[in-house]
Amino acid sequence: MLKSSQKLNYCLVVLLFFSNIGGVSAQVLDKPAVFALLTFNIARFTRWPPLVLPAISKNIQICVVGDNIIRDAFYALERESKRKRNIQIRYLSRLRKIQQCHVLYISGLKQDILRQVLNQIKKQPILTVGEGREFVQNGGMVAFEVYNKKTKLMINLSALKQAGLSINARILKLAEIVTSPFPNVKTVE
């Protein structure tokens, strides 16, 4: 019987290598590339409210805020996926156009700014993805973290629920469910 962490690693490998994205090979999958690819695949297993679905069926808009390394990883994913998927990556230097995003990947923001952004969009149907436990504790929905050379998936169910989003139960079984300790972010009791 596989342990929970082994199941997660197996699932992550399956998501990475059977992602229907041509041209992405194992030798180019560094940490930012893995996080970008996992973000795209988790978006594929996310359900949005009915009013948002028509826009997603045409193109998944993934917006990226943060450092250049993660932006480059998403750019490479977009370039490789153009042939098979309708995916558009938008790089946001300012946070004014967040409403155009179906997925918002946030990297490298200071904690106080991160909390403000997540609090501002917490009820909007935007899947927020980032790195580390603090991201989901601050109200982010999905976070990745590398621990002992393994990628760990963390999900904040209350943040997903507030935004009207849901993630496939198979993915949820592989994730660590994290609740938020901050007073302005509601948690599931």
List keywords for this structure.
single chain; 189 residues; alpha/beta; Rossmann fold; 9 strands
Care to give the gist of this entry?
With 189 residues, the protein is α/β, with parallel strands linked by helices. It has helices at 4-17, 31-44, 53-58, 68-81, 111-121, 133-137, 157-162, 169-174; strands at residues 46-47, 60-65, 87-91, 103-106, 127-131, 142-147, 150-155, 166-167, 176-177.
Please provide a written account of the structure.
- The two termini are 30 Å apart.
- This protein has eight helices and nine strands.
- Mean pLDDT is 79; it is low at 4-10, 13-28 and 183-189.
- Helix 2 (31-44) packs across helix 4.
- With 189 residues, it is of the alpha/beta class.
- It has one domain: Response regulator (Rossmann fold).
- Helices cover 40% and strands 20% of the residues.
Fold blueprint:
Blueprint: H1 4-17, H2 31-44, E1 46-47, H3 53-58, E2 60-65, H4 68-81, E3 87-91, E4 103-106, H5 111-121, E5 127-131, H6 133-137, E6 142-147, E7 150-155, H7 157-162, E8 166-167, H8 169-174, E9 176-177
Total of domains? 1
Poorly predicted segments: 4-10, 13-28, 183-189
CA radius of gyration is 15 Å
By CATH, the superfamily comes out as: Response regulator
Mean pLDDT: 79
The separation of the N and C termini measures 30 Å
What's the main sheet like?
A: 7 strands, mixed
Helix/strand-derived class? alpha/beta
How do the helices and strands follow one another from N- to C-terminus? HHEHEHEEHEHEEHEHE
Helix count equals 8
Shape: globular
Number of strands: 9
Fraction in helix = 40-55%
Strand content bin: 15-25%
Name of the CATH first level: Alpha Beta
Strand order of the largest sheet: 3-2-4-5-6-7-9
